[in-house]
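ok so dumb question maybe but i'm new to this and my supervisor (M.) told me to 'just get the structure for AAA-ATPase-like domain-containing protein' and walked off. so i did the thing. is this what she meant?? sequence i used:
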Amino acid sequence: MSFDVECVLPCDFCPSYRALCQGNTFHDLFEAAKDVHDSECYCQLPLGDHAWVLTEKMNQPSLAGSEIPPVGSRRVDIDQEVSKLSTEGRATVAWFFDGEDSDESEGSSSDTLSSTSPTSPSSLATRVGSEGSSGSSPVKFGQSIFRTGGNESTLPSRSLTSYQNVLSSPGVVWVDRTSCLMGLEEQADFDNRLILVHRPAGFGKTSFLATAEFFHDVKYRDSPVSRSALSSTWIGDYCAAHKCIELFHADLVLTFDLAMTRVTDFERSLVEHVNTVLKQFLCKYQDELKFPPENMPYYIYDDGVTSLAAVLGLVARTRRWRVFVCIDNYNTPSLAAKDTADIDRCLQRFLVGPLSSYLDDLHSGLIMGTGDVPDLTMSPYHQLPSVWAPVAHDLTEDEMMESAFGFTPDEVHELAREFKVQGVESRLEARTFGSDLDKSYSMRDVWDEIGRQCRERDIRNGNAI
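this is what came out, is it supposed to look like this??
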């Protein structure tokens, strides 16, 4: 017997997109709700392995309107049949989330579950389990769960997630990265080229990019900051973070992630990615741009040749807004390809060329890539400059970027004190990325070591699951 289920989806532009649907399984419900969503919005919805349901017994209007499953809701497998729920406890509301971002304990709360969104963590936020808590106390990295109990540690998801949820979370430890944003803002005053930086995997490139996205985005100008969050343990420049919160949020943010493209048939894949991102951008900022969605075909072209230029031109003509450009994993296609000539040709045609034409109308931006040395082809004295040279300058070794990536020894010591572990850095290899820069540790390695020690402590204390 079919019945209506209100499905709540983690839409990028509506915190809790809702659709009334029917289906045999929760996967069917998600697909039906996604079809309704996709007819109205261009964002790409993630699908995890589980859904969270609110039973009829608990179905109060205030709970049904929640953006996240309330305490007492029940988790079910995405392939479970809806009819398997008893008649008296049948699902009337179902939440769908990226599986990497949900805690595995029964029941849920706003402290352990968050919806997925493309703009995310500021600084780095980590949740500390309360003293004396047993079992699997979650540690939050950005908005992803890093489990310290049980037999496994879950590395943070690569996806960018909702930063404002972190701002309203009590009991977090902030490892601040906003001080670097102030230096980048001063740099943009006299040079609005995009800043290109290399770091190895695990040093927080995507997290820092998410920080920049949030603090530049006009959509978060009025984001509430809870007293509990700002009164939490703070590692880093607290004053810089406050200044960012007060002074930034003045741009339209445009983010590309070249890891989303395919090396095989790269041109088609890049065009699809660029057009999808631009559609999301126009939908998100339609109020600021006074852009009616029905005009989309006049700006987004199937061949992609003039799509980016058309959108940047639209913003420039407002004479009010500027675009802050973020490009993540910029060199992923080049590193994966045997021949980079075709990759460079496509990048020049669909990304770099349009950006260079409107460089004076941009409010700078960031380009992140894997590696630990500057791109030597960015040198003005090199005969074969990088395809990115017209729009970016490489600050991989610049002192200004030192505080943005990895953990310093002092930060590792402070984190160790918070989690009551010892000798974290003694098991790790420190790295330096310039002759005048201090050493730093991989964020991923630090979390792995903290998680390992916490799990061993739980086993000794008999708290492991």
